[in-house]
Amino acid sequence: MSLSSFGVGDSLVKATLAIHQPPIGSSTTPGALMKMFNFDFNPAQMSLSRRALWKTTPTAAVRDGAVPEFMGPEPREMTVEIFLDRSTDPDSNDVRKNVEALFSCCETTAASIAAKQPSTPWVVFEWGAFSTARFNAYVSSVEASYTLFNTNGMPIRATCQVNLHEIPSSTLGQNPTSGALTTRRVHRVVAGDSLQLLAWREYGDATAWRTIAEANDIDDPKVLTPGIELMLPAAEEVGI
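Structure (tokenized):
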């Protein structure tokens, strides 16, 4: 089974989309290969984006506004437009099957349910030496537009928009029960900070300061030295 897309059809190196079972346990390596799609034609265009997340906490004591705090980089996102065309073979049902295969990337796999770590498949897009576009990802959405049908109503041409979100190859934490990736971040202490204040800002619960103290081996929560870095556990680890 193959996927076709608008693009440079005479390229010797074809794009592929590998669909894997999600990993079991705390691994960030994709599981067993479920399907491999070889593109008939390479994409004519694709978009990649990445953002850095900053947070500003308003405070009445600062006239010009609070200094923003860097929260960390966000994973890459990629959008690929896939063109499916079987107009030269009107009796083919390949277009329907290929679209259904893409839709299945947004469905929980049976193997992950059996392992009690329900998840959608992990995918890897690859196109020759274009390493920037190669990363582990999940499919966040698939939109299909059918534009041509045979006399029996079977679609023989469609355009699909597939959105991929990167799953980083290394993380600071993972929920061992659900298998969901958790995100911890680092905060640099400034004058006026307290564990209670950080817990309130991060989790909306000042009593969660004990979790921050334990994660950073802090014996005296009343003493925070400006300039030191504190690891803030993910909300899932705090139980929020």
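Residues 1-11, 171-182 have pLDDT under 50 and may be disordered. DSSP finds five helices and 14 strands in the chain.
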